[in-house]
Amino acid sequence: MSSAVTSAAPTKTLDLGPARALSCRECGHQIPLAAEFACPECFGPLEVAYDFAGVTRERIEAGPKSIWRYASLLPVPTNVTEHPNTEPGLTRLVRAEKLGKALGIKRLWLKDDTGNPTHSFKDRVVAVALAAARELGFTVLACPSTGNLANAVAAAAARAGWRSVVLIPKSLEQAKIQMTAVYGGTLIAVDGNYDDVNRLATELAAEEEDWAFVNVNVRPYYAEGSKTLGYEVAEQLGWRLPGQVVIPVASGSQLTKVDKAFGELGKLGLVEPTPYRVFGAQATGCSPVATAFAEGTDVVRPVRPDTIARSLAIGNPADGPYVLDTVRRTNGAVADVSDAEVVDAIQLLARTEGIFAETAGGVTVACARKLVESGQLDPDADTVLLITGDGLKTLDAVAGHVGPTATVSTSTAEVRRALSG
Ligand SMILES: *Cc1c(COP(=O)(O)O)cnc(C)c1O
Ligand SMILES: [Zn+2]
């Protein structure tokens, strides 16, 4: 027996890859990695801090054809692919010449995240949250959701063999409700809007010790998943940063993390740290960040959402102030567009590029158009629009606007009449 009677029993050390601590975004106070989301000193939001080592383009390029190629830049276990999870990411980045012409942008690309396992970018953040939650000792995957997150959580839990508990506002689109329920977890429709559901989830997270609410108690890890959009855009452009990027804003997390990703790539020497501008896109019916931007304030006043862009309908966006910081620091802007402009833009995108996006994609394309017209987006800069979800989820948005050109009997003459009419 050793005489070291004072040494503590060996505990399993946490393996969250390059993640080293949680750091407060407001006061910089650091705490050890844990399932915490608020700073114990000032209640500011906590964010993952890293010590990166051995990250090279070659290693990334030799990795899996999914977000896991960037595991050495994420708060996930070193051998993350040994555990059951989804494999989102490495969605296509397409050159969009016809849409570019329609919008007046010379070199335009679309990051098409409709191609993820549950057809939105939320698969990225959920896959990272699940990997971290497993390492942190959780056994249930949960979330409050405006829809896409519900789909992603239910699917990832099913694949990992975890129980899921998903809370949604009961007024959600049918497609998003069914597309969550089909994966077999617990789905609870709440009589309230998203902000009510989010409050309920925060109360539950304090009571249910085994539940990882991906966007509440493990939010710092979850949020890092959005960085993969930034890494992919840079890699797919040939390891360089775009001149400007337009990103839809709900809580604002995605926008701030794409900026964080571009910054990391520059600091690590994986890309030239060339200047880039970040633009946010909101629907006018839920545009608290665009309003604060236009008014020149730092204060994001909560609103009651009223828009067809339900996936972006967060009236009290947690990362709103950080979105304002990011767009002001990079000389970008936050725009907002009406529901009618969203529906037009969904059709414009489909008709020019063959991509059917959900309402959030319509918001992004319509805001890009508005930002070019107002002279804020530079028509000569390399521009990327993030198309974050699939149109099949929000068919209602276009239901009254598109349909058959004609209905005919089985007669070639009638078809000809329809063709000439
Ligand atoms: C959630 C969501 C967003 C925005 O995400 P935040 O990080 O909360 O701003 C954008 N597009 C789609 C389709 C979404 O589901
Ligand atoms: Zn703090």
From TrEMBL:
The organism of origin for this protein: Pseudonocardia eucalypti
Broadest EC class assigned to this enzyme: lyase
UniProt keyword Cytoplasm, yes or no: no
CDD domains in UniProt: Thr-synth_1 (cd01563)
Family annotation (NCBIfam families): thrC
Chain ranges of the Tryptophan synthase beta chain-like PALP domain: 89-389
Necessary cofactors: pyridoxal 5'-phosphate
Similarity annotation: Belongs to the threonine synthase family.
UniProt keyword list: Lyase, Pyridoxal phosphate
UniProt protein name: Threonine synthase
The keyword Nucleotide-binding is assigned to this record: no
TM segment ranges: none
Pfam family name, one: PALP
Enzyme Commission numbers on file: 4.2.3.1
